[in-house]
Amino acid sequence: MRRQLRSLLPLLLLIGCAENQQQYPNIVFILADDLGTEVIGSYGGTSYATPNIDALASTGMRFTHTYSAPVCSPSRVKLLTGRYGFRTGQTWGSIPDDEITFGHVLSDAGYAVALFGKWQMALLKDRPDHIRQMGFDESAVFGWHEGPRYHEPLIYENGRVSDSTQALYGPDEFNAYVIDFIRRNRDRPFLAYYPMVLAHDISNDLETPPPTGPSGRYDSFKENVEYSDRLIGKLIAALDDLGLREKTLVIYLSDNGTPHHYITEYHDGQYIKEPVFSMLGETRIQGGKSYLTDQGTHVPFIANWPGTIEPGLVNDELIDFSDFLPTLAELSGATLDADRVIDGQSFAAMLTGGEYVGREWVYQEWEGKAWIRNRDWKLYLTGDLYQMQNDPFEQQPFRPDTDNESAAAARAMLAAELHELRDESGHGK
Fold it and tell me: Do 255 and 398 belong to one domain?
């Protein structure tokens, strides 16, 4: 069953009344690649310069409890569909053909919809029309596992390989695509989905090593983080120049935590990796990508919408990646088919100043492992329970025979929800 959506946009919007269109915001959705909260200055990070991201936080709303999958592919499928992994199959690097994405949702609601950056949901050499099938009218993306993402990148532009990327730098090109799309669609509602290629390290599974660029080496994690911040500044400046800031919701999110290790060079046929450490205040943290710990799943999320979101707000509500699709649907004036299971909960009211009934828990699974948590407690499928404020690195698990009164109450609540989810997923008890 595909794209069974009912547009709630009024007739005046459908016939192009510019005044009426503006009750629905433009949306620029920035998805960073491999950045945990400890990387960002506004979250307390001190290892990297992120002034433009920090400015979005100081003039918008910063969320403190947003959780992803520990790696990119399952996070992105959950983000796009609003559904848990056990409903979508959560196969690495793919999304089922019958899924409905927020691209479908906003396109059917009358938005111009485009995607620029990292796709990683199909090999485009085999499926050049895949992105359009997933609801995006325009695209220019890094050809995952088919070529480089940085220097002299392989870029699929609307399903066809671009032949004009010699001596170019991929992150610059994707940023330029976003700005051009916004400029061309400034007189109608638009969604610019911008999954950045930064700050993931280079692709290391190509037949030949990716080019190193003018420096003769691969950029470090720090260099890539700070360059991503500069590109965001350039994008925000373009919105300002076009007079679109108050009409545009800017979302900044990351797909998972910081890399555990990072490729720094290629030598004698081998890629050399170094550990990634970042300072969060006085605490030294190694990246936790690929792990279900907070270092792998706790990610920055900032929402910025001048004139609608008050500046400098800090929000400690729980946000799951499945929540973004229903939120975008509500903001765009669309509703999803009531017969299709959506696991997410819209938080649009928090952005617009309405009443919001928060989540009691968020859920995550990957490779046969799973946890469920609230702001204070985190319960794994194994039965290990952690009090996260006192034990953020999960060193001292509570087990049923060691539970105190607070731990026992948290366990009972979370275990009941986890049991129901596992039954629903077909995984049994």
Answer: no
Residue 240 within a domain: yes
pLDDT in tens, 247-296: 999 999 999 999 999 999 998 889 999 999 999 999 999 999 999 999 99
Predicted TM-score (pTM) of the model is: 0.93
How many residues are present in the chain? 429
In a domain, residue 219? The reply is yes
Which amino acid makes up residue 321? F
Sign of the Cα torsion 336, 137, 152, 39 reads negative
User: Which DSSP state fits 92?
Assistant: T
**CA 317, CA 355: separation in Å to the nearest integer?**
13
Q: Which range marks the domain in which residue 418 is found?
A: 369-425
Residues 134, 177: one domain?
A: yes
Task: Examine the domain organization and report whether 58 and 190 are in the same domain.
Answer: yes
Do 196 and 122 fall into the same domain? Answer: yes
Counting other chains too, the contacts that 148-151 makes at CB distance below 8 Å and 24 or more residues apart are 148/202, 148/203, 148/206, 148/210, 148/211, 149/118, 149/197, 149/200, 149/202, 149/203, 149/210, 150/197, 150/202, 150/210, 150/211, 150/213, 150/219, 151/210, 151/211, 151/212, 151/213
